[in-house]
Amino acid sequence: MELNKLLNIISEMSLNENIDLKEIPNMDLYMEQVTSFMDDKLSHLKRNEKEKILTKTMINNYTKQGLLMPPNKKKYSKDHMILMLIVYYLKQILSLDDIKSLIEPVLNDMSTTDDDLIPLEDIYSIFSDLKKVTFENFENDITKKYNIIKEKTKNIEENDKKEKTLAELFLIVIMLSAQAHAQKRLCEKIIDEFFDLK
Fold first, then answer.
1. Where exactly are the structural domains of the chain?
2. Residues contacting 150, CB < 8 A, separation 6+
3. pLDDT, mean over the chain
4. Cα(149)–Cα(151) distance, integer angstroms
5. What sign does the CA torsion over 97, 104, 61, 77 have?
6. Per the count of CB atoms within 10 A, which of 78, 79, 83, 155 is most buried?
7. Long-range Cβ contacts of 182-186 (<8 Å, 24+ apart)
8. Is the model more confident about 154 or about 32?
9. How remote is the C-alpha of 125 from its chain's centroid?
């Protein structure tokens, strides 16, 4: 596989696209409106059409588990929406128990935002900025690792291009998996050491 093709795949995934704070409705929404908004704004992150971004069941579970404050008269505020977005990204890597351990000491009493260590809007803005920087560096990191893989596989026979490409793709996937595993383990270690207050 050529590097340009790999970089095109990364670009098509739109990983660094964020929902801007200004796009999040500043009015209370019913659950159907919330799920429609999230599905519309995050659909580019779905692996396939069957995948659900956010469902009623998920929202109810987040509320029961203390990851989300209860709705006010069955309506969800901008703070609810921000927290749902944060939980959405975190749950791609962390368990719901880990997310709860992480969120609780920062947001304190879920029924009010007055005692938050960092206001939710600030958390989301900082997260969006860091995510953008991370994915700008992601392409450079992938390029370096791609070149290493190309160097390591240069002795594979060129007479079967399909087999050579499969070998390279295999190595790219295990390299990305190892990187994701290391980052996941670091997240868990930080949570276990500094956030798990049981």
1. 3-195
2. 168
3. 90
4. 5
5. negative
6. 83
7. 183/93, 184/93, 184/94
8. 32
9. 14
d(CA 144, CA 141): 5
The pLDDT of residue 136 is 80
Cα 18 off chain centre by: 11
Question: What is d(CA 123, CA 97) in angstroms, rounded to the nearest whole number?
Answer: 20
DSSP code for 70? P
For residues 57-94, one letter each, b for 16 or more C-beta atoms within 10 angstroms of the residue's C-beta and e for the rest, the string is: ebbeebbeeebbbebeeeebbbbbbbbbbbbbebeeeb
Residue with tokens 């500094």: 194
- Please, which residues have CB within 8 angstroms of residue 117's CB and are 6 or more apart in sequence? 105, 106, 107, 108
Structural tokens at position 141? 């990191």
Does the model's pTM come out above 0.85? yes
- For the stretch 129-145, pLDDT in tens is 998 888 888 888 999 99
- Is residue 139 within 8 Å of 7, Cβ to Cβ? yes
Place of tokens 């295990």: 174
Token pair of 106, please? 């920062």
